[in-house]
Write a structure and sequence with these properties.
single chain, alpha+beta, D-amino Acid Aminotransferase, Chain A, domain 1, Dna Ligase, domain 1, Rossmann fold, four-stranded antiparallel β-sheet, 18 strands, ligase
Amino acid sequence: MNLHEYQGKEILASFGVRIQRGIVAQNPEEAVAAAKQLTEETGTGWHVIKAQVHAGGRGKGGGVKLAKNLKEVEEIAGNIIGMDLVTPQTSKEGKRVHQVLVAEDVYYPGDSETSEFYMSVLLDRSKGKNMIMYSTEGGMDIEEVADKTPHLIFHEEIDPATGLLPFQARRIAFNLGLSGTAFKEMTKFVTALYKAYEASDSSLFEINPVLKTSDDKIMAVDAKVSIDDNALYRHKDYEAMRDLREEDPIEVEAKEAGLNFVNLDGNVGCMVNGAGLAMATMDLIKMAGGEPANFLDVGGTADAKRVEIAFRMILKDPNVKAILVNIFGGIVRCDRVAQGIVDAYKNMGDSIKVPIIVRLQGTNADIAKELIDNSGLAVQSAIEFKEAADKVQEVLK
């Protein structure tokens, strides 16, 4: 589950991480009120207005602006709220901005004593350890840094048995070229950041940039946070932060129906039981000359109702030219799945306008094939993987 910047900063602050303070606003009037409040609390006269969407590169798309007075705060907030923000991490249509973060300006004109760093905490799956990745090149895309100056990216592996050790936090501060007060502040920052990552059951904490101010304070100026969905039962307060407006509506619908669904950009819809078989089916579609339009795991119960919901979700994508149903009947019997497909097809009537190939393998697969073939519906059956691939290739032609 992805969070907005202001939500990620709230979590960071709760664990003692110093943050760039800000107040979220839903409209220009609230933005002006937030700016006035920040001026009273911090003394700042300038404010940074940041679009709150689940995407990076907001500044490149015009979603981050500096306001030097209250009139500019109102004007900029009015321009950003309601815009479709296009960034390198969004589709060409962009993301609609519903709210902005009005933040204190922590940069001072002509101040050369500030420094920006990159820092993230994430899981290194290949080693089964958490990792802190950091660089002196803050404020830039980390992919660009990795491509052009890989020697400026450092990694610190964290042993799960011991957690982050004090010497590791000190080594990070040393590799960032810090000394004195800034060195001590960075070790505190890193320790608190890692504590926040672990305690919140996050899969990613990315701070870009981490700022060293001219008076040697270390703070998070941005925050990209992803919480592990599987741990949300332990964090009801975090679960309440979910912004469904930022998520694919079809994926939200699938989650409510208990289906595992991910939207893709292809032309062949997939309906499969089991994640491994789903991945293999996507490969099968590629080999047949198509592109998978989705990842859809219907789980162990592929009854008529579940199959109908799955069909309706797949068909919401206008790019889908065919649907491949690939079910292995281990726990579930193939003939029951076949009957579910026939019933769902009949219930949906004329709303199905694309060819459907059904491959059923496992318990009672032969009976299932008979049911499909004798249904009188425009559904093609297959038993072997190769046979299903050939049929997909045929209908795409």
